[in-house]
Amino acid sequence: MNAVPALSEADLTDIERARILAKTARFAPPPARTADGRTELVGLSRAELAAELAAIGEKPFRAKQLWHWIYHQGATDFSRMSTIAKPMQAKLAEHFVVGRPEAAITQTSTDDTRKWLFRFRDGQEAETVYIPDRTEDRGAVCISSQVGCTLSCKFCHTGTQGLARNLGAAEIVGQFMAARDSYGEWPSPHGETPRLLSTIVLMGMGEPLYNYENVAKAMTIIMDNEGIALSRRRITLSTSGVVPMMDRAGAELGVNLAVSLHAVRDDLRDEIVPLNRKYPIAELMAACRRYPAASNARRITFEYVMLKGINDSEAEAHELVRLIAGMPAKVNLIPFNPWPGSPYETSTQGAIDRFSKIVMDAGFSSPVRTPRGRDILAACGQLKTESRRERAAR
Ligand code: SAH
Ligand code: SF4
User: Fold this and answer.
1) Of all protein residues, whose CA lies closest to atom 8 belonging to ligand 2?
2) Is the pTM of this model over 0.90?
3) How many CB atoms lie under 10 A from the CB of residue 186?
4) What's the pLDDT band for 2 if we cut at 50, 70, 90?
5) CB–CB of 227/173 below 8 Å?
6) Is 153 tagged catalytic?
7) Residue 191: what are its φ and ψ, rounded to 5°?
8) Which residue out of 40, 52, 127, 171 is catalytically annotated?
9) 127 is catalytic
């Protein structure tokens, strides 16, 4: 009998990646189309846009023209696209739409943080948050990648919701575009011109690396130089540690990486970030060390939620320093943000200060993330919508 050749580490990673992508497909968004059959142009790659135009007998240069109107000018109405002749505008409007998710609710916090509840064409909902810088005219847009989340980190409100479905590229890009609409920030500012919506953090609802293809497509559109043109240095993807997809994101997107560490021992991380049972700390750290975009100029951010009496001791701070030793890294300490029924308390200021000092003394920047928008449940880990999987199935 022939011996079965052993599978190498790389084969196993490929198998694991294929498994993750197959599962992602089970939660796929509905086709991006209106009820009357018009195709959504937002969220198409350049090649797909050209193919849609070819299908109605249009030449490739139209794709370039439309790209400019959609992503540079922010136009949603074909009749505003003044470089396109009127009959052509009408033809485009017959077949296509340039849409935005509907803002079902918009709330603004006493600290100016703004939160939108966006409703998509099938009625599913997700939240997006804009966090303005308090001293300069810039700020971060916190974008959701899924309606809910399959993971159930103990401290996270989104985690109590389950996963309704993945968001499509149109819906991911659409969150940013709708946020821009709301601040009148079109056309896209060029180069380093100050802009209010200056960075994107994929830190809203959902695990972006469990919806990799749609997230990657959306970020590629946002980074495109002839449109929104946000540099990959201004985009940060946060993951709870989907190790097999981290390499791919690093190679293909090169955006900044944030890793939700939250515990320095496997027994505790198994409990509060259950994904750790699949990809334990040692594997996660190895993936971080391989992450190609990491350098001294672009450090990996380790997020660490401060839970009173759970993970906030001085011994744990020392262990954290040991784990990240030699990496271009910084540690973002996030005071736990409570939500209705949450099982934890925020660490005391003293505990947070002691923890931060130990990390800082070891040579790592260790800022404490100021909670923003808590009054409107817009702070880290507070996002949640009523959307359920059943509703998607109806
Ligand atoms: N799913 C991704 C990204 C979204 S969460 C991830 O987990 O990384 C963005 C950050 O907020 C993560 O670090 C997450 O662990 C943290 N977070 C979740 N719930 C929180 C809470 N209640 N208080 C403070 N931070 C929280
Ligand atoms: Fe999902 Fe991130 Fe919340 Fe964990 S912290 S449940 S991965 S959204």
Assistant:
1) 206
2) yes
3) 16
4) low
5) no
6) no
7) 50, -130
8) 127
9) yes
